[in-house]
Amino acid sequence: QVQLRESGGGLVQAGGSLSLACAASGRTFSMYTMAWFRQAPGKERELVASISNGGRTPDYADFVKGRFTASRDDAKNIVLLQMNGLKPEDTAVYYCAARHTLRSQNYDYWGQGTQVTVSS
Q1: Which end of the chain is more exposed for a tag (fewer CB within 10 A), N or C?
Q2: How many alpha carbons fall within 13 Å on the CB side of residue 111?
Q3: What CA–CA distance (Å, rounded) separates 17 from 84?
Q4: Residues contacting residue 76 through CB under 8 Å, at least 6 positions apart
Q5: Are 105 and 99 within 8 A, CB to CB?
């Protein structure tokens, strides 16, 4: 079992930056692939970035490439999402998610979400 809790959302002007953090419980955090998703009002949830265990380079959705950076610290059980160059269309609830890299293809664990609002 993994429990996730996001923090760091808020209101920022277009062009600004925010950093999100996801704190995970559990002693086997290093066995999980972590991801950030977002869901805007009236839209489906979409994958923003994923970062597997084992030190692989994160994968990003095209709409955030070059602006967002995902990282993880397995010693501290945290995942970070640094968001730069924010746009109004980045406004959404951002969720942290986890799946066991070897045992599951689905993200089985989710945080409660944190609101990010970008004003124009």
Answers
A1: N
A2: 27
A3: 4
A4: none
A5: yes
